[in-house]
Design a protein that fits this description.
291 residues, alpha+beta, T-fold, 8-stranded antiparallel sheet, 3-stranded antiparallel sheet, 7 helices, globular
């Protein structure tokens, strides 16, 4: 039952496959390959990446690879669905707050564009017939809340033939099938005010679990309107069919707050748990817990 860990996309990724069948190591190689390719295309921390090449061409319809196009398309879809609570055009604001260090080299990355304060996801246009992306105004896209999830989902697709496996990309999880004991996977949700304690434990099978918390990196989530960090929610956990959806929605719910966040999850028919700064719990009805 191989377990392999690599540092990629600014985090530690661990893949555990509950199988010793022939070909498992090759599938794990391909799974990790998606993380490396998506990082190369979608990072805003490398001026050579496809994303940053797009950033440098505001006003131009730029042909995009299938990976970048899908990441941007999905990010815009979630932005529309959440009324802008999730917005991938916050890249320059993130950079201004100090989130601009390349994890592999430690080098500080600074873009030369000067976007207007009111840029939003509505300033990005997609042409599905030509597979082009157009930035209508100078802006920097941040795909951090979808690119890692996309990598997890594509890695999971590589491992599907083995049925039982776990992918942990710095807390972005996909749990396939059953654990080595033959039960659904057990996922502990960290207490947002005590790193040594769990606030809940969930049972998950063939689903993704992603959590956004104010304890991760101070100020790493912004309210698109105003550019400040939300203060009402301490952590937001989403359980969804895929990691790209779970990660994006965890970010959106963190910004929206408990009432609007739970309404959004119920409307989209996914489950979630929101812990406020006062440690009040708000959750959907379908969460499965460890007995």
């Amino acid at each position: 039952m191989p377990v392999r860990t690599e540092a990629v996309m600014g985090t530690i990724v661990t893949i555990h496959v509950v199988s010793s069948e022939a070909g498992v190591d090759t599938s794990i190689d391909r799974a990790f390959g998606w993380f490396h390719e998506i990082e190369e295309r979608c990072t805003r921390f490398d001026p050579r990446s496809e994303l940053m090449q797009l950033t440098a061409k505001a006003g131009v319809a730029v042909p995009a690879s299938p990976i970048l196009y899908e990441a941007v398309r999905f990010a815009l879809m979630v932005a529309e669905e959440t009324g802008g609570a999730f917005d991938p055009t916050v890249g320059h604001r993130m950079e201004a707050r100090g989130f601009n260090r390349e994890h592999r080299t430690g080098a500080t990355v600074r873009t030369t564009i000067a976007p207007d304060d009111d840029v939003s996801f509505q300033d990005v246009r997609l042409d599905p017939d030509r597979n082009t992306i157009t930035l209508l105004r100078p802006l920097t896209l941040d795909l951090g809340a979808v690119a890692k999830g996309l990598a997890v989902d594509l890695a999971a697709r590589e491992l599907e033939p083995f049925k039982n496996f776990a992918i942990d990309a710095g807390g972005d999880l996909y749990l396939g099938g059953l654990n080595p004991e033959g039960d659904p996977w057990s996922v502990g949700i960290r207490h947002p005010r005590n790193a040594e304690e769990l606030i809940d434990t969930l049972r998950v099978s063939n689903q993704a679990v992603c959590t956004s918390g104010d304890y991760e990196r101070a100020g790493h989530i912004l309210q698109p309107q105003g550019g400040t960090s939300p203060t009402v929610v301490a952590s937001a956990t989403v359980v969804a069919p895929g990691a790209m959806l779970a990660d994006a929605l965890a970010t959106a719910v963190f910004v929206l707050g408990p009432a609007a966040g739970i309404d959004l999850l119920n409307r989209l028919e996914v489950d979630g748990l929101i812990i406020t700064a006062e440690l009040q719990r708000h959750e959907t009805r379908g969460l499965r817990r460890v007995a």
